[in-house]
């Protein structure tokens, strides 16, 4: 059922048809992008679960298959992410291999990753944020180095990705936030560290873990509204002034007072 739901939204992006959904737009935009890059024309109706894609032109429907391949690829990335995270935390190769082995044969992860769903995309960004956070912590002895900045920035990008797919991504924001508070509290208690240097640490985290994610999150909606410029099933959720900007709407180009 969910594949019917989110596959249809991918088609909306390809057809630039405005819709409304409870989740942020990033996951659906990536699904639509995967279909668009493969040549899918967005014509499959996604009316009910179980409809066969073979009913439509195969060449045009390769996009839907690529959407599945895209989600499967992101789902498969969870295995190396888990391996590297556990290896960094435990410094134990057997523990990291055991973690990867368990995840490879987890039927839930395999099932979620083989359909056009938001879940593998969400898990990709969630685990990417955790891995980046752990890697950044490992660079604590060389702050402001290139690797430290890279992992700190990548943590911020992953946080934006997780929030941009589903609001459940806020839980990893909470995790990274608690880790950052602990890290800053530890730095504040370091008597060998000057207040100026502590201020630099604080500013770096504000820029990479607050400003950068919020900027990217806002940019996702900017792209969302720029792409979806045609009238669709989501018009009624918005004001008349907004509807007047949608091509094909009854109010299109009508002067609507604020």
TrEMBL record:
<dbReference type="GO" id="GO:0006493">
    <property type="term" value="P:protein O-linked glycosylation"/>
</dbReference>
<keyword id="KW-0328">Glycosyltransferase</keyword>
<keyword id="KW-0812">Transmembrane</keyword>
<keyword id="KW-0808">Transferase</keyword>
<comment type="pathway">
    <text>Protein modification; protein glycosylation.</text>
</comment>
<feature type="transmembrane region" description="Helical">
    <location>
        <begin position="202"/>
        <end position="227"/>
    </location>
</feature>
<dbReference type="GO" id="GO:0000030">
    <property type="term" value="F:mannosyltransferase activity"/>
</dbReference>
<dbReference type="Pfam" id="PF02366">
    <property type="entry name" value="PMT"/>
</dbReference>
<feature type="transmembrane region" description="Helical">
    <location>
        <begin position="66"/>
        <end position="86"/>
    </location>
</feature>
<keyword id="KW-0472">Membrane</keyword>
<dbReference type="GO" id="GO:0012505">
    <property type="term" value="C:endomembrane system"/>
</dbReference>
<feature type="transmembrane region" description="Helical">
    <location>
        <begin position="149"/>
        <end position="182"/>
    </location>
</feature>
<feature type="domain" description="ArnT-like N-terminal">
    <location>
        <begin position="1"/>
        <end position="229"/>
    </location>
</feature>
<protein>
    <recommendedName>
        <fullName>Protein O-mannosyl-transferase 2</fullName>
    </recommendedName>
</protein>
<comment type="similarity">
    <text>Belongs to the glycosyltransferase 39 family.</text>
</comment>
<keyword id="KW-1133">Transmembrane helix</keyword>
<dbReference type="InterPro" id="IPR003342">
    <property type="entry name" value="ArnT-like_N"/>
</dbReference>
<feature type="transmembrane region" description="Helical">
    <location>
        <begin position="92"/>
        <end position="109"/>
    </location>
</feature>
<dbReference type="GO" id="GO:0016020">
    <property type="term" value="C:membrane"/>
</dbReference>
<dbReference type="InterPro" id="IPR027005">
    <property type="entry name" value="PMT-like"/>
</dbReference>
């Amino acid at each position: 059922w969910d594949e019917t739901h989110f596959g249809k939204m991918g088609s909306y992006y390809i057809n630039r048809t405005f819709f409304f959904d409870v989740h942020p737009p990033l996951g659906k935009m990536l699904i639509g992008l995967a279909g668009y890059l493969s040549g899918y024309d967005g014509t499959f109706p996604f009316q009910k679960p179980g409809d066969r894609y073979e009913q439509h032109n195969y060449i045009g429907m390769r996009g839907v298959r690529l959407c599945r391949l895209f989600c499967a690829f992101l789902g498969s990335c969870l295995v190396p992410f888990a391996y590297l995270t556990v290896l960094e935390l435990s410094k134990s190769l057997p523990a990291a291999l055991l973690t990867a082995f368990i995840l490879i044969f987890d039927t839930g992860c395999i099932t979620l990753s083989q359909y056009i769903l938001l879940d593998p995309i969400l898990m990709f960004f969630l685990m990417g944020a955790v891995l980046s956070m752990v890697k950044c912590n490992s660079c604590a002895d060389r702050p402001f180095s290139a690797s430290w900045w890279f992992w700190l920035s990548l943590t911020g990008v992953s946080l934006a990705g997780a929030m941009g797919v589903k609001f459940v991504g806020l839980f990893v924001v909470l995790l990274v936030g608690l880790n950052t508070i602990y890290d800053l509290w530890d730095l504040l208690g370091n008597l060998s560290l000057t207040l100026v240097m502590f201020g630099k640490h604080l500013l770096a985290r504000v820029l990479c873990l607050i400003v950068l994610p919020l900027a990217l999150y806002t940019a996702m909606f900017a792209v969302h509204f720029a792409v979806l410029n045609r009238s669709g099933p989501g018009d009624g959720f918005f004001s008349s002034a907004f509807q007047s900007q949608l091509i094909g709407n009854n109010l299109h180009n009508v002067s609507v007072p604020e």
